[in-house]
């Protein structure tokens, strides 16, 4: 089977009702991003950060995978599909995809604030006083702005091995994830699905589809099957 590597971003989850933030205005659900998604914000107000992610966690219990998620899962019948997602929700998993790398962390997990290697399943709220086995406060298992992205090495290897590299629902403005398109092979087919995409940064090699994630995947499915 050919290797189909998919880099997914907030745009695909937005179609299920999960709100996104835009780097341009620096706000996420009316919060300054640095207040709720940075080590500085955690040091400043742990209660605010925990409640922010508690709300996000409650939200993903209320939404469902959309057709784009489901079509991506169906592609496993035809390709060796590997998903590199910037999203912290579990919609790819619930749609049926089986090979997913969450480079920015997972909302349904928590970890010790002193040791990110101590990881726990976390379906409910995290409260002040909830502790890991090392006695430290639990925090969301999320890669915040200013923190290292430990899975980038693995993501880079997946990008290098791809026969087809599909970018969906992301403007590739957040690094180091944005650099993955520069790791693909010269003969790798690069496809971009984004309704507002201008083609900037991809060069002439990219097949750009100015469509929503769901409509783009519906239009692309048969074409991809013919390439399998």
Automatic annotation (TrEMBL):
Subcellular location(s): the record lists: Cytoplasm
Q: Per the UniProt record, which EC number(s) apply here?
A: 2.3.1.286
Q: What does this protein do?
A: NAD-dependent lysine deacetylase and desuccinylase that specifically removes acetyl and succinyl groups on target proteins. Modulates the activities of several proteins which are inactive in their acylated form.
UniProt free text on domains: 2 residues (Tyr-53 and Arg-56) present in a large hydrophobic pocket are probably involved in substrate specificity. They are important for desuccinylation activity, but dispensable for deacetylation activity.
**Species of provenance:** Chryseobacterium polytrichastri
State where it is primarily located. Answer: cytoplasm
User: What does the entry list as the binding residues for substrate?
Assistant: 53, 56
| The protein's name in its UniProt record | NAD-dependent protein deacylase
Q: Which family does it belong to?
A: Belongs to the sirtuin family. Class III subfamily.
Q: Name one GO molecular function term.
A: protein-succinyllysine desuccinylase activity
Under Gene3D superfamilies, the record lists: SIR2/SIRT2 'Small Domain, TPP-binding domain
Positions that bind NAD(+): 9-28, 86-89, 194-196, 213
- Organism ancestry: Bacteria, Pseudomonadati, Bacteroidota, Flavobacteriia, Flavobacteriales
User: Deacetylase sirtuin-type domain: which residues?
Assistant: 1-228
Q: Name one GO cellular component term.
A: cytoplasm
- Quote the gene name from the UniProt entry: cobB
Q: Does the keyword Membrane apply?
A: no
């Amino acid at each position: 089977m050919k290797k189909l590597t998919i880099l997914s971003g907030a745009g695909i989850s937005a179609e299920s009702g999960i709100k996104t933030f835009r780097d341009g205005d620096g706000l996420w659900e009316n919060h300054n991003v640095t207040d709720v998604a940075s080590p500085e914000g955690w040091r400043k107000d742990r209660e605010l950060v925990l409640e922010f992610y508690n709300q996000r966690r409650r939200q993903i219990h209320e939404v469902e995978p959309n057709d784009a998620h489901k079509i991506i899962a169906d592609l496993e019948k035809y390709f060796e599909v590997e998903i590199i997602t910037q999203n912290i929700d579990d919609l790819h998993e619930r749609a049926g995809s089986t090979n997913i790398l969450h480079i920015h962390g997972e909302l349904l997990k928590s970890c010790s604030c002193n040791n990110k290697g101590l990881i726990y399943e976390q379906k409910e709220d995290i409260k002040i006083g909830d502790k890991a086995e090392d006695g430290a406060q639990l925090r969301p298992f999320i890669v915040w702005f200013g923190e290292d992205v430990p899975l980038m090495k693995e993501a880079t290897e997946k990008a290098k091995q791809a026969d087809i590299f599909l970018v969906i629902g992301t403007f590739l403005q957040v690094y180091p994830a944005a650099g993955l398109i520069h790791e693909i092979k010269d003969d790798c087919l690069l496809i971009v699905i984004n309704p507002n995409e201008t083609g900037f940064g991809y060069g002439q090699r990219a097949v750009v589809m100015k469509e929503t994630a769901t409509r783009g995947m519906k239009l692309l499915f048969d074409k991809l099957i013919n390439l399998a």
